[in-house]
């Protein structure tokens, strides 16, 4: 399998040359790596041999990138059926680490890494951090959970690989986070945007000015968020905030990262991942620039190759700007988070965008679904900013409902409350009481 030598210079150089490679160079590299990956999966994972044979395709049928469409998809169900280690392509003693995604229902999905996989992953996270404005020598407070979740350890190894200093706080313990932030003076912080909002509000509640903190940059992800939320966090902390994307089945954080100089969507590290955007209904490719489901094939993985993984994340592929590699538009939602109200499709982030337009409200919210007769009904429960008068709250409640009706064409109830618990990791945006 391919080695990581092409990206190790991330540590010292300003950026690696591969980030500026020509499209032709990238295509040649992706083609070569995809060939190896398809062979590796076919010969070492029984599921892939069966699935390829059933579809009547062989790794030798892959000649150029578009031939990937001949090969079968992989989804979460396949990973669950092969729980825990049935999808591993190397022997037990070659596995250096295991992670798992909790999954709200059913068995968790388990993923494995060889030492080389960890090396590649660390390099890609280091590259992501650098693209987001972190520099060697910086101190980075890591507030993603440590454990089976890939966020904490994934970021941690990347921070160390970059030559920066990791402060491994993990999630939660917000008062402790503030104390460490004050005493250790981190230059950067990483975590979920919803948790960063908690940190911001707790600082204010404790009489601290978040803009006085030592933090210069924030790298946030692991859940959908909006431009409105970016503005709240950037203005609140006085920082530059960028978006990091990834998923455990494909690697973990560091699949794509927004560059600080453009803040215009996330560069996919195409030397390690091949992205496709498909129509979620027909599973046919949509042209670059159009919205669809992201399907990813990692092309350098040893322990856990996955072919055409259906992420269920909705986004579009855009041409490169700050780097030659293509970008993903901000991931607006997962298609399983789509709410259909009287025929109109809505996503929680659409509500978030409108919530962030009102300074009486905080983007801490939940979409509560119930049945009214045979119809689905949505109540948007939103937190108000501290110290608001009942009149201001009433006004915002009325106004948001109207804004949602005008902009999105749906009727919902809005309930503005003192507190919405958005948790310490990924925020739970949908509560389904139907
Ligand atoms: O959330 C990995 C990660 C950790 C990414 C830290 C970024 C930072 P999973 O728990 O497997 O892995 O969840 C993956 O989270 O399919 C998306 O639905 C969502 N997601 C991740 N990053 C973003 C993002 C990690 N930047 C799932 N924007 C993915 C929107 C995101 N959604």
TrEMBL record:
InterPro entries: Adenylate-forming_Reductase, AMP-bd_C_sf, AMP-dep_Lig_C, AMP-dep_synth/lig_dom, ANL_N_sf, PA_CoA_ligase. It catalyses: 2-phenylacetate + ATP + CoA = phenylacetyl-CoA + AMP + diphosphate. Its EC number is 6.2.1.30. It holds the Pfam family AMP-binding. CDD domains: PaaK (cd05913). It comes from the Bacteria. Residues 89-296 form the AMP-dependent synthetase/ligase domain. It is an enzyme of class 6 (ligase). The keyword Ribosomal protein does not apply. One of its GO terms (biological process) is phenylacetate catabolic process. Pathway: Aromatic compound metabolism; phenylacetate degradation. SUPFAM superfamilies: Acetyl-CoA synthetase-like (SSF56801). Belongs to the phenylacetyl-CoA ligase family. Catalyzes the activation of phenylacetic acid (PA) to phenylacetyl-CoA (PA-CoA). Monomer. This is Phenylacetate-coenzyme A ligase. It comes from Corynebacterium humireducens NBRC 106098 = DSM 45392.
